[in-house]
């Protein structure tokens, strides 16, 4: 909900063409999707348009030991329609 | 990894035009993204093409108590290029 409000404020202040990009990696990917869905259901409805959803992989330094870890990422670009 | 192998088998047996659809909801959304990324990195590389990524919300019956829960969903459609 906090992220959804922050995204809403961004959409209401910035140029509409730019929109808002929400990025997350690992287990937070679910939170990124939740944020967009809350933004749609509670605040903007059909005014919110998903422009693009990209997924990818980021190589992260090892948490312990020597092995690098591959972590999935998501990037959701949304705009507010007039 | 198990899901990635299953998806690979689907892509290798079905008509390429149909591709494979991976759906998940709630915390498993991360697993859906991981599955596609493993499929890309370990098996198919650039042959794997993401056709569409859809996100949405599903209303689930309450786990306990009376309140329904809104759960985010993801649907990733991928095809294997020739």
Note the beta-strand portion of chain A.
Answer: 35-45%
Distance, first to last CA of chain A: 23 Å
- The total strand number of chain A stands at 3
- Apparent shape of chain A: elongated
Number of separate helices of chain A: 2
**Helix content bin of chain A:** 25-40%
Q: Largest interface: which pair?
A: A-B, 20 and 20 residues
List SSEs of chain A in N-to-C order.
HEHEE
Radius of gyration of chain A, in Å, reads: 15 Å
Helix and strand content put the structural class of chain A at alpha+beta
Q: Biggest sheet of chain A, strands in spatial order?
A: 1-3-2
Largest sheet of chain A: 3 strands, antiparallel
Description of the structure:
The structure is a homodimer. The first copy, chain A, has helices at about 1-15, 30-45, and strands at about 20-25, 50-60, 70-80. By secondary structure, chain A is α+β, with helices and mostly antiparallel strands. Chain A has a three-stranded antiparallel β-sheet with strand order 1-3-2. In chain A, β2 (about 50-60) and β3 (about 70-80) form a beta hairpin. In chain A, α1 (about 1-15) packs across α2 (about 30-45). The radius of gyration of chain A is 15 Å and the shape is elongated. The interface of A and B includes residues 27, 29 and 73 of A.
Q: What's a concise summary of this model?
A:
Chain A is of the alpha+beta class and 82 residues long.
Looking at this protein, list some descriptive labels.
alpha+beta, 82 residues, homodimer, 34% helix
Write the layout of secondary structure elements.
2 copies of one chain form a homodimer.
Chain A: H1 2-13, E1 20-25, H2 29-44, E2 48-60, E3 69-80
Antiparallel strand pairs in A: 1-3, 2-3
Helix pairs in contact in A: 1-2
């Amino acid at each position: 909900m906090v992220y959804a409000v922050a995204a809403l404020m961004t959409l209401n202040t910035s140029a509409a063409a730019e929109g808002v990009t929400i990025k997350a990696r690992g287990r937070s990917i679910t939170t990124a999707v939740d944020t967009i869905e809350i933004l749609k259901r509670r605040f903007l409805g059909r005014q919110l348009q998903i422009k693009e959803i990209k997924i990818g992989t980021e190589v992260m330094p090892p948490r312990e030991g020597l092995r690098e870890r591959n972590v999935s990422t998501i990037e959701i670009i949304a705009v507010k329609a007039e």
